[in-house]
Amino acid sequence: MLAYVIRRLWQMIPTLAGVMLLIFFLFNWVGGDPALVLSGKITNKEQIENIRKQLGVDQPYYKQLGYFAFEVANGFTCTYRSYVDADGARAKLRAEGKPAPCQAVRSWATNEEVPKILVTRIGPTLTIMLPVLVLETILGVILAIGVAYVRGTLTDRMIMMVCTVAMSISFLVYIIVAQYYFGFKWGMFPVQGWTGNFWKDLTTYAPLPIMLAIFVGLAPALRLYRSFFLDEINHDYVRTARAKGVAEKVVMLKHVLRNAMIPILTNVGIALPGIFVGSFLLETFFSIPGLGREILVAVNRSDFPVIKAATVYLAMITMIINLLVDVMYKVVDPRVTFK
Amino acid sequence: MRAMTIAAVAASWVIAAPLTAQAPAAAPQKVVRYAFEIAETGFDPPQISDTYSSQVISLLFDTPLTYDYLARPLKLKPNLLVAMPEVTAGGTVYTLKFRPGIHFVDDPAFGGKPRELVAEDFAFSLKRLYDSKSKSPNLYLVDGKIVGDDLLKQREKELGKFDYDFPIDGLKVLDRYTLRITLRQPDYNFMYLLASTNVSCLQAREALDKYGADMMAHPVGTGPYRITFWKRGSRIVLEKNPGFREEYWDAEAPAGDKGAQEIVARMKGKRIPQIDRIEIYPVEETQPRWLAFLNAEHDYLDRVPPEFTYQAVVGDRLVPNLAKKGIQIDRIPGLEVTYAYFAMEHPVVGGYTPEKTALRRAMVLAYNNKEEIQIIRKNQAIPAQSPVGPGAFGYQPGFRTSANDYSPSRARALLDMYGYVDKDGDGYREMPDGTPLEIEMNSQPTQQDRQYDEVWRKSMEAIGIKMKFRKAQWPDLLKESRAGKLMMWRLSWSAGYPDAEAFYVMLYGRNAGQANHSRFRVAEFDQLFERARTLPPGAEREAIYREMNRIFLVHAPWKLGTHRIYNDLTHPWILGYRRHPVLRTVWRHVDVDAGRQQAAMAQK
Questions:
Q1: N or C: which end of chain A has fewer CB within 10 A?
Q2: Which of A38, A50, A127 to mutate to test the interface with B (most CBs of B within 10 A)?
């Protein structure tokens, strides 16, 4: 197993390199010139060149790519320019007897350190998305096993119909309607807001977006998990267990549930990286200062350092979670072997 | 155990949510809460130009001059200065005498000592615009104007870093409180720059030395507020600066303006600022912004979102159900203009020959501005008759011209006269030489832009001109526009100071490829532009502006759009609010009836 994990870790390097190349070339070919955006209404060639120099986009592409790789290797906590002390700033600090740390990568639009942006934005995102994933999975599994058990009945058909209708409506509609009625008309929740106090946010501002995300996510999850359970219920081992006189509760919760957990786990694994990015719709409508909203703002501002850091970070999380999910298969199903 | 924990959290939501949602605000302070439409970027004056960051900066920093809150026409008055600057040598020398005893807000940068504002601070603040590390988008406002400013840039090139100690002739500190600014050529509009948040905020060098690259997060000014909490894009909390100088409310209400006179009667003589705390929340979406205001989660709505116009305004009045709640409306046309430009160097729509001018003028006549105002602007705009925005010196309120009429029949006649006729019978006109005539308008892939495209398409089809629409994102369009690659594009422009010059910069030949997106170049126009800034405000300068407008209308480099009307809403406990066309915020002039505010919160 250790060899498998090590091999998978090695495989992450070329994958990450591919992601870096993709984002770098996409931005440079498709994205606007940040110097033009930052230079204001009226400017001149000299000033634009100055800004391009400040941002480092005046360098040849191969050099910019090299700097990007250096930043990724350092977790965006150190720029190459600062590392080699290109402007002598660190040498000056050392001469003054002051600490001379490497300068972190900064946002082009706000000059804020990129690692700090990611760290401060992840909390609100997880405050919303983690309960969503957990509750959605638990509710989805419980309801799906129940619906699968009564397959073909009126209850089953009604629930499936409701799920289809629920899936057919845009998430945006749910948000707008729920915000109007639950937030404004009935005053059950604040219309929007966020304080930064975890407990207050979780109990006051998060419930409505969480409920909405669960409501919207539950329908497809329920349909999917139901099909996993039905697959298992139709297997010979279930028929055999029932023929042996095993109690229905044991058949469903021990045998069927355990076997259906592998595809469910795969599905959760696929959804898991998404919780670190959040739902930009929820975050923008409910003014939640999360990562999804931050990435959206960065894209609108052509703020490449934030975009590239968020992309690399998401790619790494996806790879790590995929690895963990693969390892988890072994825990759930001892028959799984690593090759 | 896990299930119990989840159940406990879920139960706490059910119990706590209604309670917290209905809990009255217990703060005894005078508080104003409102939303920004777009998140701020930071609070370092030379680095920012966006409206929202500028609003915060206007509360944290001071400028040498400011505007009288209520006087119309707009009137400059001393803010940090003892008196208005002395202007000598035909408008080239400005002598500023700062008031003694004004202090910066307490900050660790000053090592625990009070720090008095001195004349040297303003020289430093202006120099910051030239520091390439500032990447200042506001540099264009002063670049090349101050004697010796080119030497600052040259010195930076030589040293590899900006030298704030390098003296230049244009910025001379005469004594502790007196600064003399010398300009290369007369510029009477320089006075306005002394009141500009984006140019003239007083900063302290110690702050730059301490915070360096983090200046965006460490504003140190002399303004009435200080920042006490900031999470970018989420919440900004400003509280009264305890060390703010003793200053009392004073403004001139225009004769006949009953609302302004009531504000004066209520506010005159009060110590400023009256509001203890200002909380700002960036909320990008319009629905939560609108509902948060109606729900009294916010006290002020900065411009009613277009989608909710009909729920807030009927004609020029507040809708009755909001008026019944005591909600107040403040309406003013913005100091701005919207327009669609024709690229004057483009082979199809550009050029100064009669047939090219005729094509542009025909399109101007054919565009249904009224439909734009009714449908897209929801009647919250006035048609522009010149590039100059309302309230600016040089704006002519009663001016009307047939060149801006909506007249498809005249447009068709003009096109026929110059040979733009349908030669192949496909229903669309061709160029006089028979080649296809197709106009390409560039726009963004947004809902609102699609509406504009539709008005353009309908208007042009009515006169037989074929249009196509190319979609791209704003930064890409900006890049292409500045490179002169677009045929047509819609833009808007807000002026930083109330003078026609701030609008005509968009047509000045030397700004081609920058603010002058159409690349309009007419020597006569440029000469008048240069002449106007050397004249003090008065009849002669006004006449020049009229002539510039005439030249503009003759060549038709733009289809003029509108001047948008801003509708601001406030709850009844906000007292004395009136939007100023130039000042970024007016909170230092406004009061809050805290008792009424708390009573309203308690009723929720």
A1: C
A2: A50
Q: Mutate which of A287, A293, A304 to disrupt the B interface (most B C-beta within 10 Å)?
A: A287
Residue B19, in any domain of the structure? no
Sheet holding B488-494, edge to edge: B466-471, B438-443, B488-494, B336-342, B558-560
In chain B, the number of structural domains is 2
CB atoms < 10 A from the CB of A153, how many? 11
Q: What is the homologous superfamily of the domain A116-332 according to CATH?
A: MetI-like (1.10.3720.10)
To test the contact with chain A by mutation, choose from B152, B197, B291 the residue with the greatest count of A C-beta atoms within 10 A, namely B291
A179 vs B42: CB contact, 8 Å cut-off?
Answer: no
Residues B135, A202: C-beta atoms closer than 8 Å: no
pLDDT in tens, B507-547: 999 999 888 999 999 999 999 999 998 999 899 999 999 99
Structural domain containing residue B158: 46-218
Who contacts A39 (Cβ-Cβ below 8 Å, separation ≥6)?
A47, A48, A51, B135, B137
For residue B416, the distance in angstroms to the closest alpha carbon of chain A comes to 39
pLDDT at A325: 84
Contact A110 B136 (CB under 8 A): no
Q: CA of B544 to nearest chain A CA: how many angstroms apart? A: 23
- Chain B residue with minimum CA distance to A192: B288
Q: Per-residue confidence of chain A (339 residues) as pLDDT tens digits?
A: 788 889 889 999 999 999 999 999 888 877 667 787 777 767 777 778 888 887 888 889 899 999 999 999 999 999 988 888 877 778 888 888 888 888 899 998 888 999 999 999 999 999 999 999 999 999 999 999 999 999 999 999 999 999 999 999 999 999 999 999 999 999 999 999 999 899 999 999 999 999 999 999 999 999 999 999 999 999 999 999 999 999 989 999 888 998 898 889 888 888 888 888 778 899 999 999 999 999 988 888 888 899 999 999 989 998 998 888 888 887 777 777 776
The minimal CB distance from A111 to the residues B216, B482, B604 is found for B216
CA pair distance A200, A198, nearest whole angstrom: 6
Q: Name the phi and psi angles at B349, rounded to 5.
A: -100, -10
**Contact at CB, B283 and A50, closer than 8 angstroms:** no
B482, A284: Cβ pair inside 8 Å? no
Place of tokens 């606007």: A32
Distance from A6 to chain B by nearest Cα, in Å? 32
Q: Do A40 and B231 touch (CB under 8 A)?
A: no
Q: How far is B433 from chain A (nearest CA, A)?
A: 37
Cβ contacts of A37 on chain B, cutoff 8 Å:
475, 478
Question: Are A204 and B17 in contact, with CB atoms under 8 Å apart?
Answer: yes
Give the whole-angstrom CA distance, residue B483 versus residue B476. Answer: 11
Q: What residues of B are in contact with residue A284 (Cβ under 8 Å)?
A: 284-285
Dihedral of the alpha carbons of B7, B11, B17, B19, in degrees to the nearest 10: -160
**Three-state DSSP state, B135:** coil
Report chain B (604 residues): mean pLDDT per 10 consecutive residues: 44 44 59 94 92 95 98 95 96 97 97 96 97 89 94 92 95 98 95 95 96 94 97 94 96 94 96 97 94 95 93 92 96 96 97 97 97 94 96 93 94 97 95 96 91 96 97 83 93 93 95 91 97 92 97 97 96 97 95 92 78
Q: How many CB atoms lie within 10 A of CB B113?
A: 8
- Per DSSP, what are the bridge partners of residue B76? B67
* Residues B381 and B526 grouped into a single domain: yes
Domain boundary among B218, B244, B277: B218
Looking at the DSSP bridge assignments, the partners of residue B328 are B570
Domain boundaries, chain A: 2-96, 116-332
The amino acid that residue B405 corresponds to is: D
The alpha carbon of A104 is separated from its chain's Cα centroid by a whole number of angstroms, namely 23
Read off the CATH number of the domain in which B127 is found: 3.90.76.10
